[in-house]
Amino acid sequence: MDHILKQHYSLWDDLRTNENDLKISNKIIRKIKIDNVKEIDVKQCYKKHEQFEFETRQEKFVINGQRVYEWLKLEWRLPLWSEEYMHFWLKVPLEYKKNQNLYIDYLKKFDSNDLFNLKKVPKKYSYFPFWAKFIRPILYFYCKIFNKDINKINKKYFLYFMTHVSVYPILSYKEFLKFSSSHRGPVSFWVKSFIEKWQRK
Predict the structure, then answer these.
(1) Do residues 184 and 10 lie in contact, with contact meaning Cβ atoms separated by under 8 Å?
(2) In the prediction, which pLDDT does 11 show?
(3) Is 136 found in the same domain as 104?
(4) Which of 14, 58, 67, 92 has the most C-beta neighbours closer than 10 Å?
């Protein structure tokens, strides 16, 4: 439950209260039909977590993202969501799913062009604007001296500029600063905007 809340219900830090967490947890328990929380074992936990991910985020958020192709009058296919492929994963034991074990083993065995050599995986790339590179060392020393969290400062002041595509176009930088310390990413603002529009109707 903690993982689900952190992954899917933490777009705004200031809304992660004990009261809200309890309300959402109870709804999730009803959604995935857990009769007795105290008696659920580890395998059932994984199974229920997978069920929740499948029926909520994947089905409603990810799959519906393909609707943009229909709006553009284009056809679309999702081969990794074929019925045959889904039935295959239903039969795969937990130990092969955990930590992507089966997937990684497959890449190692059927990697004819050495594309998936895990030793050659490049470091994670994060974009930081050129002009900000001069400011960042000063901020780093400021955080060291005054015991501040550099990640929080990056999120509050620089995340707006650190994305590789323009995903904050919904608001200006000035508007962004009003709420930036509590948000997780661009989706936080898109959801906030959607809810506000929906409430006005």
Answers:
(1) yes
(2) 93
(3) no
(4) 58
Q: Do 157 and 77 reside in the same domain of the chain?
A: no
Residue 190 lies in a domain: yes
User: Which range of residues forms the domain containing residue 26?
Assistant: 2-118
- pTM confidence score: 0.73
Cβ contact 72:120 at 8 Å = no
3 state SS of 30? helix
Report the pLDDT value the prediction gives residue 56, as an integer from 0 to 100: 87
**Sequence-ordered list of residues with C-beta below 8 angstroms from that of 160, at least 6 positions apart, any chain:** 168, 173, 176, 180
Distance CA 122, CA 118 (A): 9
Question: Is position 123 within any domain?
Answer: no
- Cα 165 to the center of its chain, rounded Å: 17
Residue 12 vs residue 171, higher pLDDT: 12
Q: In the block, which residue shows the tokens 């006005």?
A: 200
The mean pLDDT value for 111-132 works out to 68
Contact by Cβ (8 Å): 145, 137: no
Residue 176 near residue 160, CB atoms below 8 Å? yes
